[in-house]
Amino acid sequence: MSFFAATFAAAAECALSSGYSVAQYMGWSWGKRHPPGAAARFHLVCLASVIAATAFTLATIDPVTITIFAVVLGAAAVPLTYFPILIVANDARLMGERVNRPWANAAGSFFLTVMAVVSLASLPLLLLTKAGQ
Predict the structure, then answer these.
(1) Local structure of 30: helix, strand or coil
(2) Which of 33-42, 76-85, 94-103 shows the lowest per-residue confidence on average (mean pLDDT)?
(3) Which is higher by pLDDT, 29 or 132?
(4) pLDDT, the chain, mean
(5) pLDDT tens for residues 104-129?
(6) CA distances from 33 to 43, 45, 61, 126 (A)
(7) In the chain, what are the domain boundaries?
(8) How far apart are CA 98 and CA 96, in angstroms?
(9) Alpha-carbon distance 46 to 115, whole Å?
(10) HSE toward the beta carbon, residue 3, CA cutoff 13 A
(11) What angle, rounded to 10 degrees, do the helices at 78-89 and 102-128 form?
């Protein structure tokens, strides 16, 4: 019973998270407190995410392999999120007195380079090792 409750709660949380993300981005009416008629698109996204997750589970794809791919692709995207932060940190108009100093720029650029190299190497290594199998 506990396993069922935990799994059901996680599924509901993921479905609602998908619905909230899409509905808020699209500017739709959203929320679990709205009846389905008042927020039909929100509820449709929630239902579609549950159906898609169920279909994915029934496809018998190895979940460990999918997790490995997701982690590597997430790590490969890190420089894409770090670079805009580095740019903003160098904008004196936005940051005022907290703008990056030269030594912080050097360190930030060094780490961006390291992240870019690792990011570029991660995808070929993932494919060459067949996700570590």
Answers:
(1) coil
(2) 33-42
(3) 29
(4) 89
(5) 999 999 999 999 999 999 888 888 88
(6) 11, 15, 35, 43
(7) 1-60, 62-133
(8) 5
(9) 35
(10) 0
(11) 170
Contact assessment for residue 99 and residue 91, using Cβ atoms and an 8 Å cutoff: yes
Q: Any idea of the CA torsion for 87, 89, 93, 96, to the nearest 10 degrees?
A: -170
b/e code 49-65 from CB counts within 10 Å (16+ = b): bbeeeeeeeeeeeeeee
24 in Cβ contact with 63 (< 8 Å): no
Using CA atoms, how far residue 7 sits from 11, 45, 48, 71, 97, in Å, is 6, 20, 18, 22, 49
Q: Are 75 and 118 in contact (CB under 8 A)?
A: yes
